[in-house]
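Hi, here's the filled form for the chain we discussed.

Project: internal
Contact: R.S.
Residues: 283
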Amino acid sequence: MANIIDGKAISAAIRAEIKEETAAFEKEHGFRPGLAVIIVGEDPASQVYVRNKRRACDEVGFYSKAYELPASTTQQELNALVDKLNEDPAIHGILCQLPLPKHLDENEVILRIDPKKDVDAFHPTNVGRIMIGDYSFLPCTPAGVMALLERSGIDITGKECVVVGRSNIVGKPQAMLLLHANGTVTVCHSRTKNLAEVCRRADILVAAIGKADFFTADMIKEGAVVIDVGMNRRADGKLTGDVDFDSVAPKASYITPVPGGVGPMTITMLMKNTLTAAKDSVR
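And the returned structure, exactly as it came back:
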């Protein structure tokens, strides 16, 4: 049976470290790291995420500000808010909760955020820096995956790593981070031929396609490390990942559960990015 990678415990340990670093930072510089979160409209999932982010800021000792804008907000109004936050010295990280209402241009907002305050690491400047390995921030979910591997004592060097999913938020940056850690990386997607065969080669498999229980035991190599980034809801309302946990766990050496695996790490890495941005602001 696989070792369970406990994302809740690892996340709690990292947050405790961030809290300690934040207290030392405030003592030295006289101010706290500041995070601004923008939410447009009333998407229930987005509202939950924003509440969790504010709670995390309180936990680690950050200053936080939430801007809850009506769905009728115009592009000009949203851009003006981003411009204001870019100039605000008390704000070191700016996050605009996606998705935005359809009449708003997400790319325009991403490009508007100062790359030095882009704690989601979505701005092309930060994406490019990740590509060459010279970065301050990492996208939060892939960064969380790397922290889980590192803190579980899993060496990536020379391992066959398969990432299934090619999104800009998870799949692509995840592949780059595994490559920077000296993994041999294959990226699979909806057009990949013989997907199961490619997955069976993986020493480390990262599943990030958003399909409930898609990866079954016959797709997994004996002793593989299985990282499940998926977050899906079954017909009965229960949360599940992209991996069929019950069939895969007996075959894997390490596996992340859903919930309680990658999920808790994402906001924790956002806190880490915000602290980094605050430190960079005084260099």
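Let me know if anything looks off before we file it.
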